[in-house]
Prior knowledge:
By secondary structure, this protein is of the alpha/beta class. The protein is built from nine helices and twelve strands. The chain has helices spanning 62-70, 92-98, 119-124, 130-142, 159-172, 189-204, 216-222, 240-245, 253-260; strands at 15-27, 33-46, 50-55, 77-85, 88-89, 103-106, 177-181, 208-212, 225-230, 233-239, 304-306, 309-311.
Amino acid sequence: REMERKSTAVAGPVLEVKNLSVSFRMYDRGLEQYDLKVISNLNLDVRPGEIVAVAGSSGSGKSLLAHAVMGLLPENASVEGEISYGGKLLEQKDMERLRGKEFALGPQSVTFLDPSMKVGPQVTGPRPSRERRQRQREVFDRFHLAEAVDRLYPFQLSGGMARRVLVSTAVLSGASLILADEPTPGMDLEMALEALQCFRELADEGRAVVLITHDIDLAFQVADRVAVFYAGTTVETAPSGDFLRGPEALRHPYSKALWNALPQNGFQPVPGFQPYAKALPKGCLYAPRCPWRTEECGGEIPMRELRGGMVRCIHAT
Length: 317
């Protein structure tokens, strides 16, 4: 089924990420330390009333972005660049204050559920109002979660049920910014579409939603824009309609390859592998696998505006 998309996005991003880099202090042989940069010069923004889907292969930095925005990175992480909320540059203390209130994370891992607490109180919070309990029941009914689920512990849930509980938590949060990290794995097609439609409705109410997903062919139907990540950086941001039209409407060669790799588009593989963070090539990170590469690709490649989107490629037209 095709989902209704009614963007109410307005000027002025809720979340703006500029030139974000994230490194981790690691130990090598002989206890020598080094910094492993896993995100570099990453850019993203999302406005009220908008869903921005984040696509890319595993290890491209999608979940790490969500944790950086929420201020949930471990102590050995070092962050450079800017993360702004409503035009205000955020520090760690701001992220801690905002998360769970203005920011809501629908985490990828079901281990985020407290194993010692029943499901119901985890979703509604302590001492919920009658209205909140009623709203929670409405959301659970929508996701085919029976009333008995409220009284279960996380270990008693199947993987798909736990995923639906996590999505319910994000839907009920009331936050202005929702970061949904892989919300649909473990769900059948009907439930996955229902979950994405919930996020669409939240955006239509004026929320800003970042949808991190591998189910990109479904995300194209509900998102307003799609940001494509590769090896820890943004290579393209484009209207979702461009992905529905096909590779001729896209800008970056990796975006085109991602589209062609979808089962319904021929399942065409790309030779080579995404580079490991410790052995990144100079210049364009996709150059070793790119059919367009030239010597110029070894230099600095900034993001630039092109045909109503943004792209990190000197050859894109």
